[in-house]
Amino acid sequence: xxxxxxxxxxxxxxxxxxxxxxxxxxxxxxxxxxxxxxxxxxxxxxxxxxxxxxxxxxxxxxxxxxxxxxxxxxxxxxxxxxxxxxxxxxxxxxxxxxxxxxxxxxxxxxxxxxxxxxxxxxxxxxxxxxxxxxxxxxxxxxxxxxxxxxxxxxxxxxxxxxxxxxxxxxxxxxxxxxxxxxxxxxxxxxxxxxxxxxxxxxxxxxxxxxxxxxxxxxxxxxxxxxxxxxxxxxxxxxxxxxxxxxxxxxxxxxxxxxxxxxxxxxxxxxxxxxxxxxxxxxxxxxxxxxxx
Length: 292
Description:
Blueprint: H1 3-21, H2 23-30, H3 36-58, H4 65-91, H5 96-103, H6 106-117, H7 124-143, H8 154-177, H9 183-205, H10 214-241, H11 244-249, H12 254-266, H13 272-289
């Protein structure tokens, strides 16, 4: 492996985190103009077109029926249930910060599942890093202004917990069953399943009103090409090449980075506590990833 290629491989997780963190920013731009399941449906349909074109241009190898079914299961878990659960929890009254905090449990849950189900081992220092990383995420969210109280409803908690479990199980499922599948065509089947699920949700629970404004179009284009194409291909590559717990630990960096982006783009508060919390989160990631 050449030096340039080696550096690119090392940079992949951090490029992924930067791209993934912009998902909340894109949703914030799109939110005033479209309902959540409809924006996800349109995003998935555009993404299917993009991956179909990529597969034709690159002459990608299409999976067998069994492999395609595995990819559709991954899509249902990692995309449909995760995104649908997060959007539903927020739509039904759970503050975005609280939802993010629940999603912040993902690296710990994935590590526990990979330890129990897949035999992956973590050293005590790495377990400490996972806990420290979660504390950092919690402090990042606590440093922001939550803007009042909310009432815990069974429906909102169920949606958030479903999203958390789905992306954790989906990561392990893809690691176990998706290793021999082409990334491009595998992602196509993942998004096909997601589009079907979003269509059912959108036409069952929403009015379908859309206010086509430049901000919505720009947000959709970014969510398709920046997130659904670029970020997801990097995530699938990381899952295929790395240990599940280590891959999941990078998600700890998403809330701090999102906080910085919101501070730069929307003048949201980033105080001293928030900056210290970001440092704690980075320390946790370092402990998880260090070799010695």
